[in-house]
Amino acid sequence: MKKEYWIRDVHIKPNLILAPMAGVTDSAFRKLIKRCGGVGLIVTEFISVEGLTRNNLKTHKMMFFEEEERPISIQFFGHNADRMAAAAEIAEAAGADIVDINCGCPAKKVVGSGGGSSLLRDLPKMENILRSVRKAIKIPLTLKYRIGWDENSINAIEVGKLAEGCGVEQLAIHGRTRAQGYSGFANWDIVSQVKEAVKIPIVGSGDVRTIEQALTRLRETGVDGVMIGRGAMANPWIFRQTYEAMQGLPIHQPSLEEKRVFLMDYFDVMLKEMPSEKGALGKVKQLCAQFTHGLPGGSAFRQQVFHSQSVVELTDKINNYFSAVELQLTA
Ligand SMILES: Cc1cc2nc3c(=O)[nH]c(=O)nc-3n(C[C@H](O)[C@H](O)[C@H](O)COP(=O)(O)O)c2cc1C
User: Is residue 103 flagged as an active site residue?
Assistant: First the structure.
C-alpha cells in the first residue's frame, strides 16, 4: 500500500488529502484540520474564476492561505478558458503549490453556466480549458471530476486520458455521476479502472468515513491517494489516525476535551474572520451537525444548536453539552 507520492516536485506525504468543500474548507478550517495531523495535501473550496478575474474582493479573499497549510492546491471553477488561465496565473503568483480545475460540481448554478460537471459533456471545451491553463502556469495542474454526467454516459477513463494528454499531473475522481448528486455510493471500481488506464497519480474520493475504509481503498484499488471530505468534518483526526494505522502505530483517540477545544477554536476563528455574527453562527452550526455524530445525545444537541440565536447561547450549549457527556462517560 502506498503511503506517499509526488506531483512533480510536490511531495504528498502521507497520501491522505483534505477534499475541497465549498463553504467548509476555508483557511480557518484547513488550518485546524492540518494541526490535527496526517494531512498530506489541502485543497481550497472551489473559487469562481469569473469573480477572481473581475476583482471581486470576496473571491480574492477565498484564495488566502497561510504557510502552515502547504502543500496547498487552489481549486477553480468556470467555463471560459481565458478566464481560467488568468485565474491560474493569479494563483501561481500568490504562491500556490498546485492549481486544480473543478469538473465535478453538480450545482445547477455552476452547471447552468457551463462549468463544473457540465464539462464532462463537452470534452472539447474541457480540453481547451486544460490546455489554456497548462500553458499559463509553471506549477502542477490537476483535475477533480466525477465519473460521468449520468449512468449512461460514464466517461471517467476518456476524461482521464484526455487530461493526461493536456499535461494534467493528477486526477482526483469522485466516484459518483453528476446525476447522483450525493446519493447512493461512490463507484471505486471505476476509479480503479482509471488508475490502470493512465500514468499520472490518481486520487479516489467518496464515502471514506473511517480508518478502515481509507486503508481498504488504498490497498484494493491501487490509487495513489485518498481524499476525505465529510468524514473530516465528523472526525478531523481521521487523517492522523489513518496514517498511524498505516505505520502500525498506536491510534490517537481524541479526548472529549480535545473535541470541545477543536469546536471552540473554530468558533473563535469564525467570529474573527466572518463579516457577521450570523455568518459565524451558521458555520459553527454546520460543523456541529457533522462533528457530534456518534457522540451520546448528539441528536438532541444538534437540535439545540440549530435553534441557538446568539454567540453566548451557542457557546453555552456547546460547553454544557460536552460537560454533560463527560459526566455521563465518567459516571
Ligand atoms: C459541502 C460540500 C461541498 C463540496 N464542495 C466541493 C468543491 O468546492 N469542489 C469539489 O471539487 N468538490 C466539492 N465537494 C465534493 C467533495 O470534494 C468530495 O468529492 C465528495 O464530498 C465525496 O467525498 P466524501 O464522501 O469524502 O465527502 C463538496 C462536497 C460537500 C459535501
Answer: no
pLDDT along the chain (331 residues), means of 10: 97 98 94 96 97 95 96 98 98 98 96 96 98 98 98 98 98 98 97 98 98 98 97 96 98 92 92 89 90 84 91 92 84 72
Q: Active site residue: 103, 105, 166, 288, which one?
A: 105
CATH architecture of 5-246: Alpha-Beta Barrel (3.20)
CA of 229 from ligand 1 middle (Å) equals 6
Write the DSSP assignment of 113-175 as a string of letters: TT-GGGGGG-HHHHHHHHHHHHHH-SS-EEEEEEEESSTT-B-HHHHHHHHHHTT---EEEEE
Same fold, 5-246 and 256-330: no
Which residue puts its alpha carbon closest to atom 5 of ligand 1?
A: 21
116 lines ligand 1 (CB under 6 A): no
